[in-house]
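Q: What would this complex look like in 3D?
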Amino acid sequence: MKKRMLLILGLVLVAALIMSGCGPSKPKDKEITIGFVGMTLNNEFHVAVANGAKLKAKELNVKIDVQAGDQHASADAQLQIIENFIENNVDGLIIVPSAPEGLLAALNKAKAKGIPVINLDTAINAQVIEEAGIKVPFYGTNNYEGAKMAGKYVAENFAKGTKTAILTGIEGHKNAADRLNGFKDGAGDTIVVVAEQTANWEVDQGYTAAQNIIQANPDLQLFFCSNDNMGIGALRAVQEAKLQDQIQIIGFDAVSAALDLVESGEFLLTVAQYPGKMGEYGVENLVKVIRGEEIPQEIDTGTELVTKANLAKFREEMAKYLD
Amino acid sequence: MHWQEETTVTTSEKDITVRKERKIDLHSIAIYIIAVAIFVMFAILAEMNGRSFLSLSNIRNIITQSAVISVIAIGQTMVIITGGIDLSVGSVVGFVGITGGLMIKAGIPVLAAVFLTLVIGIMVGLINGLLISYGRIPAFITTLAMMQIFRGLCMLVNSGKPVAGFPEGLTRIMGTEIFGIPISIFYVFLTYLVMMTLMAKTRFGRYVYAVGGNREAAKLSGVKVQKIELITYALAGLFAALGGVMLLSRLSYADPNAGISYEMNAIAATVIGGTAMSGGKGKLGNTFVGAIILGMLTTGLQILNVPVHFQSIITGMAVAGAVYLDKIKERKE
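A: Here is my prediction, written as structure tokens for the whole assembly.
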């Protein structure tokens, strides 16, 4: 039994050795280490944020540790990661919060150690930041502006009175509200909203909601889906009803499946964010602030409409961050 | 394993007894050896990578981070010893968090809200216990159903929205330090001390083992099996609620998704600690070591910056490995 125990321990040891990319290396003095706390690493958007950060860290010759919660985006897991980073004396933290209001304890700990924090993608709740009493710069997509661009595209390319259905994200999510309002403001009176339902960002719920909407509005002309997942669900419902020629679909996020659908013409367009750039800006400015330089408190990392016309260029841009 | 026979007739027999005892000792401390080995392993690996694992503050971190699971695992272990299981504890953690959070937001004093949430935990446990022991619905199914019902209720009570912005009093429950030691460590030690004493020294404790060991025999010898089961599930609910309060205070944030898969971590801590899923056997103290092993794995792998997906794989391997060791131990006995 002892032998077996040793064997198992040995195996775990070897596994850990290999995966920690070990090699006896002493830390250099004054070497900057950044702790990157991701929301999750289970979808390509967040993988791209992390990879952007890693690329920039490599370029600037600083060390970066990337950790994220497992499948469940949880405030608890992120707090734990942040505690462990602080324990290991990181010089700065980049946080993509899984719960915008859930990081008060973590911010307090960073503040106590004087560790600067930069917030990417999903803004930490302003009240939480105020309560913690530290400055947390935010770099991310302006979802309202992105959706407004899509709305303007509709205003320019569709006839007045286009019968439109909107699938929105989880109620109470700021992103969901911003995208909804942005699209409506951009499209103005070009669209007539005949249905507006939440499908909680999910493919299957988008599918069901779209089925019901089409059932009730067989003359529908346009779906605006606040993320690509719901758009993919809506597409299935549209195909089932054999209304591809009548109903156009707009998505948001530009995930690779959606890019394929833009290519095949099944999506009219999708709104792209620049997750890789978020990671890059994050690391670049965090290093600056660690070195005592001033940095911007807010950066809009930009959005772009991806249609058939600029698809190739956009894919090239994204490929940098997804390997 | 629990009772050592006293045979002191001839010298040769005495020798055998002594040798047997020594062997038993080695088996029963295997879990501690593993825990220490993992600790040393991470300490060495971290040192080689220029990172810090072997420090007082890190040990503090590990215990604080494992505190919630450690406490939940107390009830889980007791339930598993009776031959049952409780899958609802994760949802109870979430439900207690969100209802407790709403109560505090509504102006109910923190301690009163904490008390009420503990009562909620006991009530959920009692429902589980009644359905299982008197309703004769299998524990797995009952608690699976309750897990889903209470996750739904988590979403329902505040329309899926989290609750934040709590008074200082809530944060202090977990945030206080006594002589530089986080108070959560005291909670864990205190609850374990009380419950280990209960399990080892009282009639109730022996009955819990008896119910899981041989339900029929226990019944025939006059143990009120159903009552014992009921109490055990109520305790599991209580400790889940306590874990929920601790999590709420630690984060100062109530998330309707809080506690998802905590039941699995509590079960993992229990089986790593050597408690048999078939019931009748197990030591509460070892469950704590199991929870600490899980905590060390998470912390250690994070400190070594092992990619997230591998962390899950390695943790899974550790759970399987621990149970495998236990099986070998069983066969040898």
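A: To summarize the key features: Residues 2-19 of chain A form the longest helix (18 residues). Chain A touches chain B through 53 residues (CB under 8 Å).
Q: Very helpful, thank you.
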